[in-house]
Structure formats: C-alpha cells, structure tokens
Amino acid sequence: MACPKFKPLFFLTFITGLVECLCFAGVIFGWAALVFVLKSEGYFESSCVNITSANGTQTLDCRAQDEQFSLVFTIASSLNSFFTLPCGIFFDRFGTLVTRICAICVYTGGMLMVGLSSPVLAILLFPAMCCIAIGGVLILISNIQVGNLFGPRRFTVITLYNGAFDSSAALFFVLKLIHESGISLHHLFLFVAACSVIPLLRTFFLLPRHFIPHPLPENYTFRSPCSARKSQTAEQLKEEPAVPEIPEKTFRECVLSRLFLLHIIWLSVMQLRHLLFIGTLNPMLLRLTEGEPSLVSEYINAFSITQMCGVLCAPWNGLIMDRHKGKPRAEGMSEQEADLNSSWLSLLLTALQCLLFSLCASIPSLPLQYLTFILQVLNRSFLYGGNAAFLSVAFPSYHFGKLFGLVMSVSTVVSLLQYPCFTIVEDVLGGEPLYVNIGLTVLSLLAFVHPLSVYLHCRKLIPQRAANKAQGLNILGF
Q: 440 to each of 8, 273, 424, 444, how far by Cα in Å?
C-alpha cells in the first residue's frame, strides 16, 4: 500500500525552518550591536582607567573593556564552529528529536543568563554567549537535512538556510532598537528565551523523529508506515543475489585528500577575516568617528541591517550550482563529477569577494565602510553556504555530517588567532590596525588555491573517465 504524499507539509517545514534559522540560529554574529547596548549599560566598565596625556588632560582609556568584549566573542564564535563536529556526531547518533530538544534547552539557558546578568555579573556573558552559539549551531545542523525534501533544489535550500543563519545576526540589532525605546535588557532577553517554545513545537509537529533521508524515498512522509516498508524492502534485498558495488571512499581517505585539506584552508583564512572584523567593529568605528556615539550607533545600525540581507544573498550561490547541475553532462560524466565541476566557479567567486571585502576593511575611510558591510554579508553568505554545498558534492553523502563538523572545528583553531590579532592592534600598534589588516588581506590570497585545484582536478578527470568507461566503471577520484 503506497504512502500518501503530503507536499504542503514539506513546504511548511521549509518555511518554518527558514524562519527558525533567521530568528534563532546565528544570533551570536550580531555581537557588534549587542556590545553597543552592553557598553551603555556599563558592562566591564571597571576595566576602564583614567590616563593623563602629555598635555596634562585626563582621558578614559577603555581598551581593556574592549578586550573583554572581544574575548567573549572570540570564545563564543570559536565554540560555534568547534562544536560543529561533536554536534554533528551527536545528531548522527541520537537523531533530530533529541538533538533539537538539547539545542533548545542550551539556547534558552544562554538567553536566560544574559537576561539575569548585570554590570556586576558581567562574567555571565561568557557562558551565556557560548550556550547561545552552541544551541544555534545545533539548530542549523538539524535544519540542513530539510534540503533533502526538495531534490533538484537541494543546494539552493541548503545555501538559503545558511544565509538565514547569517541573517539571524539581526536579532541583536532589533533588540538594540527596542532597548533604545526604553525597554530594559533584562526583559528583552527573558522574552527571547520564552520564544524558544516556537522551535520546540516545530520539533514535535514538523520534523521527523530521526532523519530525512537522501535520496528521498518515493511518497515519503515524516511519520508514516513508509519506514516500515523501507525496512521490509531492505529485508527483501538481502534475499536477492549480491551485485558488485563500486568501492566508496573511506572517511580517512576523504580527510587526507587534497580537496579536503585545501577546502579547510579556503574556509579558515576567510572565516578568520570575518570574525576579526565583527569582533573589532565597535572599536574600529570608535576610532574612525573619533568617539562620536551617535555616529557609531548609525554605522552599527547600518551593519546590522546589511546582516539581514544574508538570507537574500546566500541562495545565489546555490542557484549557480543547481543551474550547472541541470545542464547536459558530457559523455561518461557522472552526476557527482558534474557537481564538482560546477563548484569551482562558486569557490572562486567567494575568494574574490573576500579579497575585495578585506581591502575595503583595511582602508581607514568611514563612508567606505558602507561598501565593506555589503561585501562582508555577501561574502559571508557565499562562504558558509558554499562550504556545505561543496562538501555535499565532493564527498560521499554518508560522510557529510562528520566532514562538515570536522572542517568547521579545524577552522575554529585558526579563528582563535583573532584575539591575539586584536591584542597586537591594541597593545603593540596603539590601536592602529593597518598592518594587521594588510597581513590578513595577503593571507586571504591563499583562498584562491582551492578553486584552482578543483578546476585542474576536474580537467584531469577527463582522461580518467575515458579509462573508467572502458572498464565499465565511473569512479570519482580524489
């Protein structure tokens, strides 16, 4: 008996998942807007000291306060990436229901800690932001599988969800605007914590208990006897004669492959540039505006508004890949080879965007930062959406969760350099970041190696494909 189709449920799952990622998943990256509020509330203000200048006037030196805020963001954003691997393993082991319940509890706990914090208990920001970051990445991981429901548009959905993850940084901007209207920080975060009931309801009614499979079985529904039919089919297949299978790449072979190692470098250098920019945005604007609070607030608002556009920019990357995927393939070319061949352009565009963003961020011009904000959100959307999409086409699907978690975790180790970079700027260079920005811009050139390697790899597959065809095989080499 065939299982009934219920595609409107798939669409509802997609829409609610998009809203969920937009409102809950990556809010930690709206840190710049929250710092402005926390500073106005006096958090870490005891770190500021009075200094006497050469002409005898006294000024307030708050570099130590900025370092405390930078440390909070460094730890939280690093855990956001580093915990992707254990979160992915946890998700693979316990499934959607258990993972999301844990994610919602951790996320809600973080919001409650911010709501209960105060300038005296500013230390609570460290565990609070860590919980918000970890809960957010678990929410994202549990939603990426929704792309499996949409077949030919799978990459577009994946990149769209990653874009929503980036755009969720706007939540802290919204809270900043509401706070400026007179609502206390305490009440705002308690309200956000209470809103966690929304993803909880979605967990029970719009998502499967375990996983959404890929490829999707015919007439698949979340909670139906399809799973039983699938098990029955599996048992029947066991009774049939075994068919020789093409040997698949092991997890170890994937990790040690040139494509994966270069992909880690590609992601790491660009992620470091983005995280350092976000973590140092507030002191940078203070320097460029000469400490004018209204101007700083104006530019923080502009940055936060551009973050909202991440959900609009990210699908472009997925559309590029899906469009190439739909083109007729060359004779003997497998679907995976075609996908990989279309990915090098996406990787190249992402690296080029990062270079332009880094150049603009390095120029000490206040009006130019509007362009910097636009390039930053565009590049960040391409970066994380392209990361998930590339891993899904370049390596076996059953290794995706582990590889996705591993690449994010390893890139986090590199991201920890953002705090030493910030310390060098403040303590060694006297607050002038020019040389550090130049160094990071040069470092970002390493990202161009990866798309070049993928392009050359695909060209090398042409004679290999002909040889494999002669043997009756079609194997994607690494």
A: 47, 7, 13, 6
Q: What is the pTM of this model?
A: 0.71
pLDDT over 70 at 69, yes or no: yes
Q: Where are the beta strands (DSSP E) in 53-202?
A: 58-61
- 326 vs 344, residue with greater confidence: 344
126 vs 74: CA distance, rounded Å: 10
Angle at 460 between CA 454 and CA 465, to 5 degrees: 115
Q: What is the DSSP string of 359-381?
A: HHHHS--TTTHHHHHHHHHHHHH
Say if CB 299 and CB 369 are below 8 A apart: yes
User: The dihedral of CA 443, 448, 449, 454: what is its sign?
Assistant: positive
Q: How many CA atoms lie within 13 A of 23 on its CB side?
A: 14
Query: How many C-beta atoms surround the C-beta of residue 89 within 10 A?
Result: 14
326 pLDDT above the threshold of 80: no
State both tokens at 239. 């009774």
C-alpha to C-alpha distance for 183 and 174, rounded to whole angstroms: 12
Please name which of 280, 281, 272, 265 lies closest in space to residue 440, comparing C-alpha atoms: 272
